[in-house]
Design a protein that fits this description.
48% of the residues are buried. This protein is an alpha/beta fold. A hairpin with a 2-residue loop joins β4 and β5. α5 crosses α8, α6 packs parallel to α7 and α6 packs across α12. The protein folds into 2 domains: 116 residues, 2-Layer Sandwich (MCP/YpsA-like); 333 residues, Rossmann fold, CATH 3.40.50. It contains 16 helices and 14 strands. Helix content is 45%, strand content 14%. The strands form 4 sheets. Strands 9-8-7-6-10-11-12 form a 7-stranded parallel sheet, sandwiched between helices. Strands 1-3-2 form a 3-stranded antiparallel sheet. The protein has a two-stranded antiparallel sheet with strand order 4-5.
Amino acid sequence: MKYEVIDAVISPEEGRLDILSKAEVGKLLDTSQGGLYKVFRNCALAVLNCGSSIDDGKELLERYPSFAIRVVQEQRGIKLELKGAPAHAFVDGKMIKGIKEHLFAVLRDIIYVSDEIYKNPLFNLETSQGISDAVFHILRNANILRPMHNPNLVVCWGGHSISRKEYDYSKQVGHELGLRGLDICTGCGPGAMKGPMKGAAIGHSKQRIKQGQYLGISEPGIIAAESPNPIVNDLVIMPDIEKRLEAFVRTGHGIVVFPGGAGTAEEILYVLGILLHPDNEAMPFPLIFTGPDSAGEYFEQIDRFIAGTLGPKAQQRYRIIIGDPRQVAIEMEAGIRDVRAFRKSTGDAYYFNWMLRIDKVFQTPFAPTHQNMKNLALHKNQETHVLAANLRRMFSGIVAGNVKDEGIRAVEQYGHFEIQGDAGIMELMDALLASFVEQHRMKLPGKKYEPCYRIIQ
């Protein structure tokens, strides 16, 4: 099947991107494996795919094999030359403005991370503090930190493959948050990432809030499966999933979790693992799990899984609210007031949570190879936060096998990821993953899901 494509040359909006050096342009023109071109091309194609119903990174790349993008440097600045770009990114031959902004945000972040983070001796990425410094500088360079604002950023997590009822509910929650002047940060994709932003945009409009922030944080591996939704007005591409997760918890002032699949379970285990650290025990961090009445059983299963793996202390760090968007917003607003008071008393920044202790086990990039997945320590004979980190990695591997280009190809080549551990944990894992499959939470509707994993009892 052929898909309609278009060729175009586009310029950035004024003030959106600094002039690039010849060396930087050279790296993007380098089409070899050693250059930045491949990652830039793949992320750019994902951004141009906004609004599509595809959630398969491999399929997207195969759908537009002739797509190419080139940086053209002129004396007055730079332009991007596109060949074979998806036609739905254009209206009457002109690229949609929001998509154009996202495209140049991708260029900005890929150049910055390559030149100013990975090749800068000031950032020691072998240390926990060095990684946190890098996360801060990437966000600051993207100009999304708001130092003169009181805390008001709510991170919303949830699945890209959700029912219409769950989507509408996430939009209602976003609307209630927007009416209270709260901004939204999500993983930038469709489903439970788009709903809260859309609802908040309407709430902000009613309150005549013109500077509402709809922040999307992604990374190169996931962006093809979760193309930025059109509401996102600030987009940041972090270099990997671990830095993406750290960006969420350090910039956000509270988190709302909607129903989702393996990616949502990964996010839940990440934040709970961090909050279980003794250094974070006294830190207020509002965390609410919520969905419509039909999601009650889903969160009961999540709660059982957490109880059986991380224990009651982890359960005390969140509240489950079913079928009440207004109550979610009221409790989140109250929780953020506590966050403001705590930050003020401790002298921590409102716009970046420096005091939050994140162990390096949560920051070290995990490569979901078959061997690494098989060797994960999924047993209770270890510190609870380390178990949470390993469970997080396991779900991250399943996400890779479900939607990421490299993960899908690895499963096609070598077969299922094998997951093994304590019998009790494996039983809970099997039940949880089976429920995700049954409820069509692993992939968008319309495709039969073929598991990328096998639980070894």
